[in-house]
Design the sequence.
């Protein structure tokens, strides 16, 4: 199985932020969201293992030729979903602190 791995790089984010992101990804289960497969936080470096997205990251997809041709209503839907995840993220960080 092909996977994507996010590695905690010094200066990128704190360990607490990295763990909070992993906890949030663990809570989110939806067919349109990337699936969290595992987290390695015992020793450094820390890793988050996720399913590999065939079209890459959302920002890269939106900037591609296909992404530029998307209907405005689809883009609005993307925006509302990203905003919803941002709000969930803020709630999760407060809850985990």
Sequence:
């Amino acid at each position: 199985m092909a996977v994507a791995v996010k590695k905690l790089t010094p200066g990128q984010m704190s360990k607490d932020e990295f763990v909070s992101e992993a906890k949030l990804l663990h809570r989110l289960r939806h067919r349109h969201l990337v699936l969290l497969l595992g987290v390695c936080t015992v020793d450094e470096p820390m890793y988050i293992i996720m399913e590999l997205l065939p079209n890459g990251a959302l920002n890269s997809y939106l900037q591609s030729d296909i992404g530029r041709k998307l209907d405005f209503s689809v883009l609005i839907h993307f925006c509302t979903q990203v905003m919803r995840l941002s709000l969930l993220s803020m709630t999760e960080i407060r809850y985990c602190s």
